[in-house]
Structures are given as structure tokens and as C-alpha cells.
């Protein structure tokens, strides 16, 4: 069974940010090994640290290339990040704090107090 929190992190880091599954899995393993519950900040900090050091947690060369498809597909993916995650027809303008996700339009976000991501 996949933890929904980990799956949410995977979607954000792999699908939205474009990092590879291997990079994500390495970061999650390391953050868990440190005895903390993985948060997006912890995972991104670990990935950034791997990039700065040029290695992954096993000492292998870190592949800084993000996983991208052809330019058209990548363009479509990036455009979809700007659209409301609920109605998928309007631009996402609402910023949720403290997480800083902005994935909903003002109409869909009306009355929502916590980030749905």
C-alpha cells in the first residue's frame, strides 16, 4: 500500500517538477533513513544537496537531467500546471499558504481554507 502523503510528494516532484523516479526514490529513502517524516521541503533539500555534490546517496554521479518528453509534450505539461486543477479551464491564480501551491482558480478556491494538493 502506498502512503498517500508519499504519493502526493511523488506526483509533485516527478510529474510537476520533472525529476526522475530514481532521484525521488533515493531522496525519500534518505529522508526516511534520517528518521523524519518526509516533507516536500526535506525531499527537495536532499535533491538540491545531491545536485550540489554531484552525487546521489550511493556516491554515484547524480544525473541532473530532468525527464522530459518531446518539446510539444513538455509544453503541454507546463501549460497544464498553470490551469486550475479542479475545473481545468481557468488559470490558477490562488496561492495557498504556507505550502505556496497555486493550482486553483479563484472560483474553485472560493471557500477552501487548506491546500487541496
Automatic annotation (TrEMBL):
**Which Gene3D superfamilies does this entry report, sorted A to Z?**
Death Domain, Fas, Inhibitor Of Apoptosis Protein (2mihbC-IAP-1), Chain A
* A UniProt-annotated Pfam family: zf-C3HC4_3
The superkingdom listed in its UniProt entry is Eukaryota
Record's protein name? RING-type domain-containing protein
Q: Which organism is it from?
A: Dreissena polymorpha (Zebra mussel)
Amino acid at each position: 500500500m502506498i502512503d498517500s502523503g508519499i504519493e502526493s510528494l511523488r506526483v509533485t516532484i516527478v510529474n510537476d517538477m520533472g525529476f526522475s523516479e530514481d532521484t525521488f526514490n533515493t531522496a525519500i529513502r534518505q529522508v526516511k533513513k534520517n528518521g523524519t517524516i518526509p516533507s516536500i521541503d526535506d525531499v527537495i533539500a536532499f535533491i538540491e544537496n545531491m545536485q550540489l555534490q554531484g552525487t546521489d546517496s550511493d556516491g554515484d554521479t547524480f544525473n541532473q537531467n530532468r525527464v522530459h518528453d518531446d518539446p510539444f509534450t513538455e509544453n503541454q505539461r507546463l501549460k497544464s500546471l498553470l490551469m486550475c486543477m479542479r475545473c481545468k479551464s481557468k488559470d490558477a491564480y490562488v496561492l495557498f499558504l504556507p505550502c505556496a501551491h497555486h493550482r486553483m482558480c479563484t472560483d474553485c478556491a472560493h471557500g477552501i481554507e487548506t491546500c487541496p494538493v
